[in-house]
Amino acid sequence: MTVDPLKSAANDELSYGQLFAVLWRRSLWLVGTFGLIVGTSMLITLFSKPTYRSSMQLLVEPNYQLGLKRNNERNTYRTDRQDEVDYATQLNLIRSYQFMEQALDRLKSAYPDLTIKEIRKNLTISLLEEGKVETKIVEVVYTDNDDIKTQRMLEAIQEIYQDYNLKQQKLRLDKGLALINEQLEMLRQELSSSQQQLERFRQNQNLIDPEEQATTVAEALEKVLQDQREVQAEYRDAQAKYASLQQQLALSPRNALIASRLSQSTRYQELLNELQKTELELAQNQVIYTDITPRIKSLQERRQKQLELLQQEMGRVLGAEASASGESLLTAGQLSKNDLELAQDLAETQSLLAGLAARQRSLAQSEQQLRQELNRFPSLIAQYDRLQPEVETQRIILEKLLEDRQELSNDLLRGGFNWEVVEAPQRGEQISPKPLQNLLLGAVIGIFLGTIAAFTREMLDNVIRSLEDLKQQIEQPLLGTLPALSSLQPHHRWPFQAAPAVPTIQTLLHPKFRESLDLIYKNLQIQNPGKLLKSLVVTSASFEEGKTALVLGLALSAARSHRRVLVVDADFRQPAIHQQLGLTNHQGLSMAILELRSANDFIRHLVIADAEIDVLTAGPAPTDPMRLLSSQRFRDLMATFTEHYDLIVVDAPPILGLVDAIQIGSCCSGFVLSARLHQVTRSDLAQATAMLSSLNLVGVVANNVKLAGGNSGRTTESRALAVSSIPSEPLRQIPPQIDQR
């Protein structure tokens, strides 16, 4: 659902208007309460004793606080500097009985009547705040009727507080130094024990730093493994070469070695050459000579000697390996240059294989030793990691405690602390009474309480003051409003000058009043579109609510619409139609009921501003109005009037407390209730509408409504109002003109 902003703004303005209207109506209550409060505040200001206020500001901040905390995880101690101060304790100390008693002792001679209770009552202590953050500055305020007394009291409190804090701070530092000394001794013992354990560990294990040595061993092991891989590769290459050389020589490695060595021996080669020559010569001679010849025997002996020499030389060259027979000596050592080189390579390769095999064995042994050494390091490192950090931690804590001890010692030598007075106490300033402030405060409170009084009186008021209140009280339609007479008066008069009395007939013909009546008459027709209202009873909840003016106004509006209209004054209690029209009341409705003459004898025909109406006044007041109104004659008259007129408007007595209106309404088509604002009460209106709801209450007309724009001036028509027959004389002097229709 959407809300019209223009309508909402209008409702807000209307609400504000209602508020101001309430304040205007109850201005006496507002002004009276305002004057009472302001007067009371001025009297209090005049008769109050002057009060003085003195203050001082102290920076309550020690140079430091030392706290020792135990580290439960490592069973060590550490120190923390803290800049926090328990300000609540400091404030309570200043308020304490001990401080107050000392201040009282210092000022007792000058102020013998001073008591601790009075000091506490007049003393205010608080922390200064910057924005919403508390500062470290304490403000002490003392109030009294003596300006010098306020200053002296704060000076005494300042001295007492500073002396106390200096003593307490020095005491705390002394205790802190003693505690540090105690901790130092304990830490020294623990550090010595830890260092001895670490020293024994290094001596027993022959280690300085297990981690570094484990790293060194691991690197050495990695180097050995790398060497093993390289030696294995070289060994495989040498084996392949050895097999190839052995295949090329077709000799065993031993024979190849022997042949190589013998081939390299010069003497062996010379002896071998001589032996070969001898054998050649022997072979040549054996062809010629027999074996028994001396020459053959000589050659054989020479050959044998040469073999022995060759055998000896082989033994010298080969040593223990010299086992060749005589025949083999001829072939041993007789290698070609190429075979000799191959034999040398084979020998070298064999030597290389032997060397590589020996190196492999050495590297394997080194690997085994290194692995055994490395396997014992984890436990050593764990033990070292437990001992070394403990020693380092204790050494750091010891150094820290020594530094803190030195700082505390220096502070004690310097006197320790600096308690700064930010603002010294001054002679007290007067804070009360303050006439202007009290006057303004009284004015504010007066306006506030006056407004409350005005609205309280308004809430207790049962009278309906506005159209909005009226609409909330009724369920029937509001046919229209009639402006208040004050809204129709000219504004060009002196202030407080009473408005001149205006005849009701002239008021009815005022343009604004006439337009309101025309609207009411039109609403009557709209509210009852399918029903012809030929007779209407106009009544009210009580007297003086403007029902007579409404009766005449409706009659004139209907007459201007070319309707035949009859106005009947049935209010025998307080008849008013004849007075408003300036007619006599010697005969009227009461006589028409009692006498058997024709009703036309009592009806008067009037022409007012070109509107023709017939009027039946009340006539002489009967002793029992109810007997006349309940008679058959009255019902017959109303029936006759209904047949001859288009509209009959009956002025009836008020509905509350009288049964006349109900009796009259039983002979008519419906009721119209006139409600006068600022007069009718909510209870009366509710009771009246409840009684008329079952009797065809057509609607309600609000009377005495103040116009927002006021009166813009009287028209020519309203200034020349009169009955058309004799314009210059009152209506009561005009003889009645009876229409003989």
TrEMBL record:
It comes from Leptolyngbya sp. NK1-12. GO terms for molecular function: ATP binding; non-membrane spanning protein tyrosine kinase activity. It is a multi-pass membrane protein. It is an enzyme of class 2 (transferase). NCBIfam families: eps_fam. It is found in: Cell inner membrane. It catalyses: L-tyrosyl-[protein] + ATP = O-phospho-L-tyrosyl-[protein] + ADP + H(+). This is non-specific protein-tyrosine kinase. Residues 177-316 form a coiled coil. It comes from the Bacteria. Residues 13-106 form the Polysaccharide chain length determinant N-terminal domain. One of its GO terms (cellular component) is plasma membrane. Its main location: membrane. InterPro entries: AAA_dom (IPR025669), Bact_polysacc_biosynth/exp (IPR050445), LPS_length_determ_N (IPR003856), P-loop_NTPase (IPR027417), Wzc-like_C (IPR005702). The chain crosses the membrane at residues 28-47. Belongs to the etk/wzc family. Belongs to the CpsC/CapA family. Its EC number is 2.7.10.2. The keyword Cell membrane applies. The keyword Transferase applies. Residues 546-661 form the AAA domain. Keywords: ATP-binding, Cell inner membrane, Cell membrane, Coiled coil, Kinase, Membrane, Nucleotide-binding, Transferase, Transmembrane, Transmembrane helix, Tyrosine-protein kinase.
